Amino acid sequence: MFRRVVRASKFRHVFGQALKNDQCYDDIRVSRVTWDSSFCAVNPKFVAIIIEASGGGAFLVLPLNKSGRIDKAYPTVCGHTGPVLDIDWCPHNDQVIASGSEDCTVMVWQIPENGLVTGLSEPVVVLEGHSKRVGIITWHPTARNVLLSAGCDNLIIIWNVGTGEAMIQLEDMHPDVIFSACWNRNGSLICTACKDKTIRVIDPRKEEIVGEKEKAHEGARPMRAIFLSDGNVFTTGFSRMSERQLALWNPQAMDEAISVHEMDTSNGVLLPFYDPDTNVVYLCGKGDSSIRYFEITDEAPFVHYLNTFTTKEPQRGMGYMPKRGLDVNKCEIAR
After folding, report:
1. Cα(236)–Cα(222) distance, rounded to whole angstroms?
2. What's 25's DSSP letter?
């Protein structure tokens, strides 16, 4: 009877490495809005960062090859009349980025090939339909020109960006503020986390809830929910003792969690970034100075702690590079 003591995994020895100073950006005044979004979005060409801006909202778009000190006069994307709360690069076009703002609008921008030379204040399209600030935006993973936005009016709108029209409005599904919204791998379902402590799985085309779990995490602080590539839902939240938790759910049977992990007692919301190719989830908390990562497998306990990357500086925002932007020759699996 030979018992395997150590679980076989390709990712046990994954480690994090910070870039050297000459490859970093300097002098960026990151937004101080009290909204739990990631403040940063990245693709293989650009990094976009929401910044402090007087009289409206703005974000920077910097080419990845132009690092160093960023001049105060560097051109911004500045069409919103209120602070920008969330930004997201289009997965099908590296020059297109969408932004949601406190001014109740969503704007879609076309960034020039080599980055901005002058300030950009004219969006390609303005999407108007929310009555309160828009805190969440996320592009459809497989269909082009489809964008989801969620506002503090507890409304989810799915837009056709090509025509600027709202295709689907999901109202009366969320009684309170929506904390997170995520498409599944092929974009047929969305999962949401709401302030009423409920995780919902929604079929947007039928406009119906196909699975929900009340009190997924007992704590009152914000939750996050994301889809994994096998269709399960991964959530982060807080226990009643305000310990940070993560949990794994099967949308077909939401009564019991597949797995729940207690982490630590910090009050920053854990933002999950998931890599469908390796099944690794990276958890970053605002105000933390660490990034924890876990591997998700089919064998108990299903969520396996791998390692923690720690730095001296607490992080204010995070962006997750798509696989196309990684240097695979250096065995880089995430950035």
Report:
1. 9
2. E
CA–CA separation, 86 and 63 (whole Å)? 19
Shortest CA distance to 234 belongs to which of 284, 300, 283? 283
Give yes or no for a cis peptide into 301 (omega within 30° of 0). Answer: yes
How, if at all, do strands 25-26 and 68-69 pair? parallel
Contact of 129 with 169, CB cutoff 8 Å: yes
Distance separating alpha carbons of residues 80 and 72, to the nearest angstrom: 19
Query: What is the C-alpha separation between 272 and 44, in angstroms, rounded?
Result: 20
What are 139-188's pLDDT values in tens digits?
999 999 999 999 999 999 999 999 999 999 999 999 999 999 999 999 99
pLDDT in tens, 90-136: 999 999 999 999 999 999 999 999 999 999 999 999 999 999 999 99
Closest CA to 95 of 160, 143, 46, 133: 46
Distances (CA, A) of 9 to 6, 276, 280, 295, 299: 9, 16, 11, 9, 12
**Range 297-302, long-range pairs (CB < 8 A, 24+ positions):** 297/9, 299/7, 300/259, 301/259, 302/248, 302/258, 302/259
- Sign of CA pseudo-dihedral 152, 158, 161, 166: negative
d(CA 60, CA 33): 15
DSSP codes of every residue in 153-165: TS-EEEEETTTTE
